[in-house]
User: What shape does this take?
Amino acid sequence: MEYRRLGRSGLQVSSLVLGTMNFGNPTELEEACRMVDAAIDAGINLIDCADIYNKGQAERILGEALKRNGRRRHIHLTSKCFNRMGPGPNEQGNSRHHILEACEHSLKRLQTDCIDIYFLHRTDFAVPQEESLAALDQLQRDGKIRYAACSTHPAWRTVEALHLADRCGYPKMACEQPPYNLLDRRIENEILPMCQAYDLGVLAWAPLAHGVLAGKYTQAAELPEGSRGTLRNVFRERIRPEGVAVGQRFAERAKAKGCTAAQLAVAWVLHQPGITSTIIGPRNLEQLESLLPAAEVTMDAADQQFCDDLVPPGRYVTSFFNTASWMKSKGI
Assistant: This one.
């Protein structure tokens, strides 16, 4: 396993990150425990979670898995807040009230006393960033989080947060977690250059494009039963004919290289400048084990050019920013 520096934090994190969005649905406890053990055995030292994943169930399962194996200290643990977690008007967003309350709930579900990297899952334009950063500062001073971070934020908003942190003495964002795969390369326009300029780590999510780049889909109109696109409408919106066409050609390239399309999709992300790690979200142990070799797949100049011809740098054929209110372009 390769380890890379997570921005200015100095943390050395594995190039592959275990994502837990599937924990609780469809991945049940026993299978999740096996996956966590296998990931740590393979050298993965960063496990990504969020309070919204199956309404807290993913955190509960992950917490139980780490309690059973006694290996909490061997990994860095993340979680996130922002999304609605209850019916009340203040049970969402990045207010001081919600951030502090959400973190307490996450700590209990994860059965830990500290979250290593705590993300604002989305930016909240209804709350001044000074308030959000002050809450993160309190959590850090209280020893409940070690690093603050942001996910799927516009570049200007992250830079504003960095300047506010400098001015007010608040914690700086250690990394950004954006969507990034061959079907949606828009972070190359501003987000990646910003992260490189300000020395932020980048943990990319959706490297397989919900299985489209794994060659899983032959058409966008009818999805295989149980596939990611059938689970939620927000996923279904990301399965488009243009992306499926790219996925089919990409799978042919992978076959010619002697690796799976899924492995090549992960390798492509890891070969892009400015990327620290990419998050893989397997449903079961078999999928996890099939993705681990991706960290060893190499890409030469011809491979890179082939991918650039499929989807040019900075462009997209499918929007993976459809859960970000600030990204107005949702289609082609």
In short: The first helix runs from residue 29 to 41. The chain has a mean pLDDT of 96. The two ends are 36 Å apart (CA to CA). The longest strand covers residues 145-151.
